[in-house]
Fold this protein.
Amino acid sequence: MTFAAALGFVGVGLWAWLRDWSRRTTYGALFLWWAAVVLGTRQRGEAGADMLRFWLAFGLITALALGYGEAVRAIRRRKLPPAAPPAPGSFSEVELQRYARHILLREIGGPGQKRLKSARVLVVGAGGLGSPALMYLAAAGVGTIGVIDADQVEGSNLQRQIIHSDARIGMPKVFSAELAMKALNPFITVRPYRRKLDETNALALVAEHDLVLDGTDDFDTRYLVNRACVAAGVPLVSGAITQWEGQVSLFHPAGGAPCYACVFPVKPADGLVPACAVAGVAAPLPGVIGSMMAMEAVKHLTGAGQTLSGRLMIHDALFAETRVIGVKPRPDCPVCGSGIDRAAP
């Protein structure tokens, strides 16, 4: 009887451990088992007297041992100082684990990851190109990410704008993007700007950031973003897509590269380069080009590898061909050429 009861006591404790019960719940289950054994032993009268004394002593010793363990844990909790927040530019243990694959890369390492954490990047447009770019910037650990867009999520967006979801149809895109980015990485700061980028706010907004990614689908906004970046001396990663083809480049006249207007001095005639809503676009294409934009951003911010500064990459998804061509500044460019007033976008 004593052996069977002891075996049952151990079994209850093992079951509680396997079920991942709390200590309080486990103690309660063990006490109920012990109490049931004691009551059963008492009912046996004189025949169970020795067994009763054993179980009473066993219960007392077990209670003292468990109580001692709880007292030690309480003392340790009181002695441990509260965890201090990481110093600016440093990483918590959770962040170190999150960014371990970056830190292992020789070209990024700890210093590069710190530069990402301290960087401020503005993404213009939370659509097809902005969606993957924003997600990968957040995943990479860019510390502050601004996103400007005046539109709301629509059902037709979801074929390619992967940062949004069906449940968020009707929500402003910048807030939908913020939810997705913070869910992916709670250690970043997201600044949503629910407005249209225009002549009144472009320069001030761009000047607050270290890098701009332009994923818009209209030429007027692209030229506006370029003028603001040139005026503020901020590098610009610009991407564009249509149907099966996309292109990416890093424009930075202050660093010796051309600006967007150097390469594309004249806006195409209406209808010559139709928007995705008119011409259509393959769903994965924005993911390919938007991810390349994020990659250029990571390389530029960390100093890794060779960026597309002074080069234009053109990707043809239909025939799986990619080519890179060199591009140069134009001295007579009305935006970044010498002698041009850059005080306003």
User: Anything to note?
Assistant: Strands lie at 120-124, 144-148, 189-193, 211-214, 236-242, 245-251, 311-316, 321-326. Residues 32 and 261 are 80 Å apart (CA to CA). The first helix runs from residue 2 to 18.
